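User: Please predict the structure of the protein below. I'd like the answer in structure-token form so I can feed it into my own downstream comparison script.

Assistant: Understood. Taking the following sequence of 375 residues as input:
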Amino acid sequence: MVLTLAFRNLFHDRIRLVVTLVGILFSIVLVAVQLGLYLGARKMIIGMIDNANAELWVTAFGAKSFEEAGSLDGRQRHIALSVPGVASVEPLVASFNEWRKPDGGATLSVVVGTDMPVGGLAPWNMIEGEPADMFRPNAVIAERTYLENLGIKGVGDTAEIGAQRVKVVGLTEGIRSFTTAPYVFMPLARARAIMGMTENQTTFYLVKLQPGAEAPIVQRALQARLSGVEVLTTTEFRDRSLAHWLFSTGAGVALIGGALLGTLVGTVIVAQTLYSSTKDHLNEFATLRALGSSSGYIHRVILLQAALSAGFGYALGMTIALIIIEASKNSALPIIMTPGLAAGLLALTIFMCAISALAAIMKVTRIDPAMVFAR
């Protein structure tokens, strides 16, 4: 009977039901898109850091992110190799540079120079060519998503970075940049030449540890021996990059704020609808009270009514959200949906509707059963 009564109350006024579902749907879609954009941005920011085969990063003091770091003079590598627990120390160059399109015009790119030994950083998610192809003369590997931005059509096209002519020999898929400046992979020596660095200069040193070595202990030892630089664990460098791009720029606050706004709007709409529905059925609820129904029974009816609204609204909202997510898959800023986010959205929808039901429950609690006999 509880389910039947809740179901009939919910579907008694179809227009009101549509308004309720639209409120929940709007909230689910907005929260899913905003948090999905946040997860997408987060993945782009930490992608290079997470795919580098290293436990520790040696950077210039105050490096803000993978793309924004100063240069090291090369003395640090030999000192670092002498520290107990260090297996390898590999240089990596990463910096913004101008990409000149073959048909004219220019755009900003991020040059990534690596020789890909153990402890280095190799391009991943290759859809054309192999990582080793970039060691051909003047060869580079680019990201398929940014082909239009780079003014090229694919493998075999040529362009210029700095004053050097380069040829695209391979393409990756899914290595996107939060700054929208495409990553361009090339050998370390070529990147140094383009950036005007000496043969010893670099942006980072990627430190690989020996089996059994503890990262915090080696980190402290490296920091004690190296002056004028910072030694960061992968986790520390990831957190610093996220803090710089998402919170120092305000981008993360805007995305999270949009998600909170969607939750608030959905909660208000659902609360208003449930309250109005309950108010219209006060006589029926009063009759139930007069017949001996407990407050708990009536409360379960209202809560089940809210749960049904949550279920229908979540199904519709997730359907639309998944369509939007699929459409963004090849964009410069893809929206990501994870099982954890989907489960979180379901819990949020149920919580939102349960909170919304409180106003209706408070109204029913004050019903005087005698009002039935006063009609």
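That's the full token string. Residues 2-44+250-372 form one domain.
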